[in-house]
Design goal:
By secondary structure, this protein is mainly α. The protein has one domain. Helix content is 58%, strand content 7%. It contains 3 helices and 3 strands. Strands 1-2-3 form a 3-stranded antiparallel beta sheet. Strand 2 and strand 3 form a beta hairpin. The longest helix is centred in the first third of the chain and has 29 residues.
Amino acid sequence: MFCVAVRTHIVMMRTQLEQQWQQEQELSNTHTSPTTQQQQQQVDDQYLMMFLLKFVCPVEECGGTLAPVAPGDGQGAHECNVCGRVRSAEEFMQQLQDEDEEEGGEDIE
């Protein structure tokens, strides 16, 4: 039950961030240059979003935390502390690219 609540909270945060980004993008289309504070907020939001995508288990209704399987192994594999799913760095990058393509963005490198 707790995992479902955490997952729901993360989805709500993501939705709020995406709405905020869309509003900021619409505003930036009307203004020529964002302020330093707006740029810092955008960086903070992007960092938070990337952190959540990388370290929250992608399995529906799991909500577990992904941690390195073997620290320092260089493989970048992470295992969920709830369901035990292992995700490699390549799978994570593929997930990012798939989500980016769905949104019509540029390729991630």
